[in-house]
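Dear U.,

For the methods section draft, I wanted the exact inputs and outputs in one place so we can describe them consistently. I've listed the two proteins in the order they'll appear in the manuscript figures. Please don't edit the token lines directly; just add comments below if something needs changing.

First protein:
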Amino acid sequence: MFLAVLITTAWLSLIIGLRYLLIAGGVWWMQWGRARGVGRQLNRERPSRRLMMQEIRYSLIATPIYALPVAVALEAFKAGGTRMYLDPMQYGLWWLPVSFLLLLIVQDTHYYWTHRLLHHPRLFAIAHAGHHRSREPSPFASFAFDPIEAVLTAWLLPLMVFLIPVNIWVVVVLLTVMTVTAVMNHCGWEMWPDRWVRSPLGRHLITATHHGRHHTHMKTNFGLHLRFWDRLCGTDAMPDVQSKTAPQSGSTTTAVP
């Protein structure tokens, strides 16, 4: 079992690393490598090569940390030790979206409170400062976490497959959504139209406009997918989406749209 986990961790690290480089690299090319990006630019300047190499280094160090708990869950799944299943009809089709939303909400809650903890002065320098070296991040910052932060966040989803029944493809879809949204929220551009960001649905979701302010101010906007906990705890601050550049100190923001 131990050897199998090590082998699975190795090939998962390769897959996760390549997926990160391909998606982040593709978004970087689309937004910064061509004459004009898609959407509205948030960063004042084009990300430097030095910044991106630093983000990539942190990301590749974090990769095996994230791969290890997934490898444990996969090997346990092969041995029948988890509640993951293959047949989508086993718990009914209705359970597929319900389980997806349940995992997303649990993860969002865990991340919000872990993220706030990481901003405590005694933890920030050793556990979260690496990610915030990217004040105006590039797409490669999406996975650039300090090892301690990676350890604190990597175990949650693998643990959940031991606790609730979930189809394996629901997990795959959730991981894909996480990767894509993380890259979009760190790419330095708001790729969603402003009317969507301010729409009845969009104003409850975290986009690059919302998360970008966390990188420039750091005392607000701690959520991952949803703005629920930020709103509830008074840490939600949405920059004016009509602004053409990243919001600076003293710029107009509102607690809620």
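Second protein (the one for the lower panel):
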Amino acid sequence: MATKKKRASNTESDSWVVVAADSVTDTHKNDSDPAFVRLRNPLTNAASLYLLGGGDRRLYEVKAFEEDFHSWFVGQAVQSDGRLLFVTPMDPLYLILPYLIKSGKEGKFQPVNQVVMDEDFPACSRLLSCTHSLASLHHVAEEKEVGGLKFHRYSEERTLSWLKKKVERTVVALKKRGISVGAGVKSSTYVRVKAESEAHEDDYLRYAHGLVSEYVSEELSKALLEHLGLPELTSPKDTEPPSKKRKLSEQPVEAGEDYTRFNSADFERKPPKKMTAAQKTLAKVDKSGMKPMSSFFSPKVKAEKK
């Protein structure tokens, strides 16, 4: 469902084009309206924008598709902000997990409402209102009940088992949708170069691992890679997740102080491209005494007549 989202602004551009599921605006009588909130990103540990809908029962991730020099026609007006925002469902346990990991270093069982607390991101406590949040904690933590109250302690073993299932389900989805992975895939179109090429199971596992790793810390991602029995790659391959190749922003969308305005610096600049082997060799050559290439093409100076 494509929708138009208004924002408070002093400029003429006061809306975004949003692609979202019907469940985002599907609210019951007593439900609050969908709300954009700033939460701590589980991968970057920085502020990112998310959306809570259905009376805080559903969590959505906000990503942006951006290309230069694009705009939208909205009614009779031109919307200069040409980004296309995607609002997709997300498992709130990914955002709860970092708080459990942090409290788990103390080695004791604690009430989860005292664990999921953050002065910088007070809205994080609303994650516990999401459907199945509390019921899913046993996937990543040990549980103990005392006097009718439940206490939890982070478990790396349970977490890796839970993430492994996420990876396996992702592999099934990739195969079901016919998404090609492996070294024979063109990064620009995600289709195979040779029809007879067949991806190995490890290619799918590594591909799915890359997707899941966007929602966990780098340390946990490496532990999951080992748990899957996959060797760590020393250089990027074509098996890396599509998020590294698509034109969606590499960083989730950030939000302003009022939770409804996007920052102008939502997207970090991409790091410079790595030099090729030939460029590295050329860079090591001693160029002292050499004339610059431009000197061979500069106009000759005519000698003055005496």
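Candidate sentences for the figure legend, describing the second protein: Residues 91-154 form one domain. The beta strands are 2-6, 15-20, 35-40, 47-53, 58-65, 72-74, 77-79, 84-89, 141-146, 149-154.

Thanks,
Y.
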